[in-house]
Amino acid sequence: MEIKYTPAFLSKIEDIFAESNLFLRYEKGNFKSGYCILKEKRIIVVNKYFSLEGKINSLLDILKQVEIDENLLSVKTKRFYEELMQENLNG
After folding, report:
1. How far is the C-alpha of 83 from the C-alpha of 20, rounded, in Å?
2. CATH (domain of 17)
3. Which of 2, 22, 30, 40 is the most buried (most CB within 10 A)?
4. By residue range, what is the domain housing residue 40?
């Protein structure tokens, strides 16, 4: 799957978080990596001043690090998530 740096692609990634039991927030902050994962509270905070490309890359990095319960995802979102994870394994 080719990564597209578009608002629609970002929205699809955000849907993964929305449908899982993780809470995604965009806040200002000076995180060294551009994001912060609060694992006990299941909150993901991404720097809101990032460019579209920066937000997408951060969210893809986060997806590699967190556990997503695929049973909570809709069929469409689950398929998209699996494609992203397959790409991460191959690329």
Report:
1. 17
2. 3.30.2010
3. 22
4. 7-90
